[in-house]
Amino acid sequence: MSFIKKGKLAPRFIGPFEFFESVGTVAYRLALPPSLADVHNVFHVSMLRKYQPNPSYVLQWETLELRTDMGFKEIPIQILDRRIKQLRNKTITLVKVLWQYHGLEEATWEREEDMKAMYPHLF
C-alpha cells in the first residue's frame, strides 16, 4: 500500500532500526535517525519484525524525503506488466507499477487511465 493511499507513514517500509526500550508489554521505543525526528518512535509489536542477521547481506540505507506534514511522495519508476480485467459489464486495463523505494515484490497493480493522467511520461 503506498503512502498516498493510506495518508500516513507506513513504518514497515522504513528500517531496520534498533529498539532501545520496552514500553509496557506490547510496545517498543525505536532508535530512529534525526531525519525521522518528527515520527512518533513507539511502535506496537504487531508492526515490528525480528531481523534475522546474515553476514553476507549488506543493508542498503536510502534516505526518505519527508514533507513537513509527514507525507511521502511515491514516485513510479516504470511499468512492468499490463493486464485486462474483465468485469461483468466492462473491461478495466491495469498496469503493474514499480515504485521508487520498493522492490519488485512490492510492485502494485494500478488502473492504466489513472496512471496515464498522473504520470504520462511512463507511457
TrEMBL record:
It holds the Pfam family SH3_Tf2-1. InterPro entries: Chromo-like_dom_sf (IPR016197), SH3_Tf2-1 (IPR056924). It comes from the Eukaryota. Residues 4-52 form the Tf2-1-like SH3-like domain. PANTHER family: CHROMO DOMAIN-CONTAINING PROTEIN, OS12G0499874 PROTEIN. This is Chromo domain-containing protein.
